[in-house]
Structure formats: C-alpha cells, structure tokens
Specification:
Layout: E1 3-7, E2 10-12, E3 18-25, E4 34-39, E5 45-51, E6 58-60, E7 68-73, E8 78-83, E9 92-98, E10 101-102, E11 106-110
Parallel strand pairs: 2-11
Antiparallel strand pairs: 1-3, 3-8, 4-5, 4-9, 5-6, 7-8, 9-10, 9-11
Length: 112
C-alpha cells in the first residue's frame, strides 16, 4: 500500500520558518522524482518544488525560489521542504507528490 504522509505544518508569523516532511512507503522511493505542491485559499493547486532521484536536480516555483529548499533522505524515504522568510501568501495546504501518488496535505498558515 502506497502512503505519503506530510507533517510539520502549523501557524507561523511572517518572516518565520517551517520545515515540512513527507514520509513515503509502498513504492520505489529512491528512483522517484518527488514534488511539493500547495493549494492556497480559493486557488487551484500549484507546483512548489521538485527533486529528482538522488537529489541531482531541483526546481522551484518562481514565487518560492530563494526562500524554500527541498531535500531528500533516501535512507528514511523522506523528502523535506525547508521554508524561510514565510509570507502571508504562502498560507496553503501543502501536498507531497510522487508519481501518481499524493499525500493528504498539511496546513501552513502565515499570520501575525
């Protein structure tokens, strides 16, 4: 059974930081490109970041480039999204994605 379980969301003040985690199981994680997406209130789901197998290549949405960093630990079947200098417009449900599989999402709220 494939599972992607996100964690690490919460409430943070503008300018703050959070680190999201996504633990994967049930598929060949080490060979998979993994992504983060988000869905902001009233908006469609959008791409945030990706990392290829082995962490060779990373790509980021323009809105988060320079503030977010995606990484992976293949020994733990886990990907991370380190978010710095958070803004209110980063408020969203963040989803982990690998191939056709999606997690349930974790809420990030940036507010004072």
């Amino acid at each position: 059974q494939v599972r992607l379980v996100e964690s690490g969301g919460g409430l943070v003040q503008p300018g703050g930081s959070l680190r999201l985690s996504c633990a994967a199981s049930g598929f060949t994680f080490n060979n998979s490109t993994m992504m983060w997406h988000r869905q902001r209130p009233g908006k469609e789901r959008e791409f945030v970041a990706l990392i290829t197998a082995g962490g060779v290549f990373k790509n980021y949405a323009r809105a988060v480039k320079g503030r977010f960093t995606m990484s992976r630990d293949d020994t733990k079947n886990t990907v991370y999204l380190q978010m710095y200098r958070l803004r209110p417009e980063d408020t969203a449900v963040y989803f982990c994605n690998g191939g056709k599989y999606w997690g349930q999402g974790t809420q990030v709220t940036v507010s004072s």
